Amino acid sequence: VINAGKSQHNEDQACCEVVFVERRPSPRGRLPSREGGGELDGGFYFHYWALFDGHAGSGAAVMASKRLHLHICEQLRDLVDILQDPSPPPICLPHEARASPAEPSQVPLAEDDEEVPNNAVPRFHLEKEVSHESLVIGAIENAFKHMDDQIEREWASQRLSGGCCALAAVYLMGKFYVANAGEAIIIRNGEIIPMSREFTPETERQRLQFLAFLRPELLGKEFTHLEFPRRIQPKELGKKMLYRDQNMNGWAYKKIEEDDLKFPLIYGEGKKARVMATIGVTRGLGDHDLRVFSSNIQIKPFLSCFPEVKVYDLTQYEHCPDDVLVLGTDGLWDVTNDKEVAGVVMEVLTSYEPNDPCRYTMVAQELVVRSRGVLKERGWRLANDKLGSGDDISVFVIPL
Amino acid sequence: VINAGKSQHNEDQACCEVVFVERRPSPRGRLPSREGGGELDGGFYFHYWALFDGHAGSGAAVMASKRLHLHICEQLRDLVDILQDPSPPPICLPHEARASPAEPSQVPLAEDDEEVPNNAVPRFHLEKEVSHESLVIGAIENAFKHMDDQIEREWASQRLSGGCCALAAVYLMGKFYVANAGEAIIIRNGEIIPMSREFTPETERQRLQFLAFLRPELLGKEFTHLEFPRRIQPKELGKKMLYRDQNMNGWAYKKIEEDDLKFPLIYGEGKKARVMATIGVTRGLGDHDLRVFSSNIQIKPFLSCFPEVKVYDLTQYEHCPDDVLVLGTDGLWDVTNDKEVAGVVMEVLTSYEPNDPCRYTMVAQELVVRSRGVLKERGWRLANDKLGSGDDISVFVIPL
C-alpha cells in the first residue's frame, strides 16, 4: 500500500517468481558422471519472493525487483550438476576453456577428459569440506553484489537514483534461504522463529568505525570515527567526555581534543541512528550517488550490499497449514511487532478453511490494513490509537 | 600443572587478588554531591581471578599475571564516585586542570565550582544514556590495552618475549565481569551458562580478511586475503576453485589467478587454523615481536588485545553452594568439554560437606588431574583412553 500520501510512487517493490535454472551448456557436453539425474536433468527450479524497500526514489527498488532473481539464477547455473549430486562439492573445477594459448604445456585432451574434479589433484594435508548449502549462500551473496554493480552501471548511464533494502526468500531443494536486509519471521505451531537480524548504524557500528579508522580519508575533514553519547560543544574542549572506539563495547572517558569536535560517524539512537548524519540503513542496494548533505563525502563505501543469509530446512520439521514465513518491509515492522504479527496470522487463518488458498492473502491484507490504521482527525491511527505507519507497507505470507 | 614435559617452565600463569580501588585525589577535593557514601567512601574493592595461557615463552604471561589487575584498578580509579552514585553517569566531566593557558576565556572559578557534571551543559536533542555496567566494561577493555602497551615497552627494553591469552573475572558491586580470550562457564543448578566466546582465526576470519583487504601491504607479497579450502597448485591456474572473501559466509567458485597462488591469510581448520601460517589465537596480549617464519611480515597488526566482556549479575539469581564459575586454560578445555566439567563439579562437590571451604579447591584439582590423565606406556591417557592434554593446565573454581 502506498501510504499516507508520502509519495506518488510506491517506493516498496516486490517480486514473486518460479525460476528455472538451466544447466549452462558445456563445450564438451555434460560430464559423464552427472548423467541420469531424472526429470530435472537439464536444471532445477527455485521459488522466489522478495521485497525491496526503496529510499530517495524508487529507481533502485524497481530495478532490483525486476532483476535480482535473474542474478541469483545466473549464479546458480554453474551449480546445476553440483547441487544435484549428493557427494560433496568439488573444490576445484577443470579448465573451462580448453587448450588456451596461455598454457602451452597442457596435458593432452584424452587424459584430461578422464579427470574427475574431486580426485584430479593430489589432496594436501588439509582440505575443507564445503557443503551444498554454503554454495547456495555464496551464490546468493554474489548475486546481490552483481545486482549492486548493475544498479551502479545504470545509475552512471541513466541517472537511476536512490537505494533500497532487499529481503529475498529462495526456496530450493527443501530449504528456505532468507537473505536479509529487512525483517522476516517464521511462525511454526505458534512459535516465532526469526529469519533475519537487524542491520543498523548501531548494530554495525564497529565495522563502520573500523573502516573509518583504517581509511580516515573517507570521513573528509568533517567526521570523527569515535562515538560520543551526544554532540560536543567547542567550549567543552579539555573536559572529559564518554566515548567508544571501534574496539570497545563499553564506554570510557577521554579528554576532549580539537578533532573530537567533528561530527561523529555514527550518531543517534534506535530508529534515528544515522551514518554521517545521512542514512539509517547500512546494508542494501544502490545509493551510489549518495553524499553527505552539501558536501562531496560519499556514503557508499560504508554501505554493504552483501546480505546475511539464514537457512531454514523444511525437511527437518513437520508443518501444518497454519505455518508460514512472513516477509515485510519497515512499514509493517515499525508499528507491528513479531508477536502481534503472529497473533494476526493465527486469528485470520483460523477464520478460513485450511484448504482455502485465499487465506494467506487475507492474512497479508489484514497485516497491511492494521499497520496502516484508519484515517481520523488526528491522522492515521491504529486500533490502539497509536500512529499508523507513514511508510509504504508490503507483506508476503508464504505457507510452509 | 606443568604438563607432559613440554617445557621446564609453566607457560600458564594465574593471579587471584582482592584489589582496593582508591579514589583519585582531586585538586579541589571531592564534589559536594558525592559525599556521605558510607564505609566505602574512599573507594571500593573488587575481587579478581585471572588465567594467562602463554605461548612462545612465559614472559608476557608472567608480566600480565603481575600487572593486569593493577591496570584495571587504575582505570577504575576515575570511576569511584560515579559507580557509587545510583544516578546515571555524567556524560561530560569538568576540566581536570583549572585555568590552563590554552583557554584564556575561561569562566571564573567561583561559577565553575557549582558545575554539576550531568547538568552543566545544555542537553542536545540526543543524549545517549550510558550504564554503570558499560563503564566497567570500558575500563576493563582499556586496561587490557594498557597492559598490552606495557608489554610492548618491556619487550622493546628487556626483550620480554612471547604472548598470552588472558581470561579475567572481576567481581564488582554484585556483578561478575568476565573478560575473555579463554573459556569460562558458570554452572548454576546443574545448568551450563557460557561466559565466553571462542576467538580463533576461523571465528574472526571476516575481521582479519577485511583488515588485509584494506591494508594489503600487511600481507607482504606472500599472502592473499582470500580463503580457499585447500592450497592451490601452480598447475591449477585457470581452473575454478572454491573461495570466500571478507563479505561472504558462503562459498563460490572463482577462476584461479596468479595472485591466488599465494598462501591464504587464514588457513587450516579447528585447532589447526592459523593466521599467516603462524599463530592459532587472535586475541591476547604480547606477541609484539612475532613475525612470519623466515620473513619480516608482522603478525601483531592482525591480533587484537581487546577482550569481549560478558556480565553476570549475581543479584538476579538465587545461588546455592554448588553454583560455581569455572575458569580454565586450553589444557582443560581441549580434552574436557563443558558437560564433563559440569559432571566433575557435581560429583566432587557432593562428596564434601557444603560448608567445607576445601571443596572448591578439590574440584579444581580433580579437573586438572583428569585432564592430564595417567602416564601409561603409550603416553598420558585419560580415563576413556584418549590422549591427555599435553598442554599446561590451570583451573579456578569460584563459588558464586
From TrEMBL, chains A, B:
PROSITE patterns: PPM_2. InterPro entries: PP2C, PPM-type-like_dom_sf, PPM-type_phosphatase-like_dom. One of its GO terms (cellular component) is mitochondrion. CDD domains: PP2Cc. Coiled coil: none annotated. Residues 1-400 form the PPM-type phosphatase domain. It comes from the Eukaryota. Pfam families: PP2C (PF00481). One of its GO terms (molecular function) is [pyruvate dehydrogenase (acetyl-transferring)]-phosphatase activity. This is Protein phosphatase 1J.
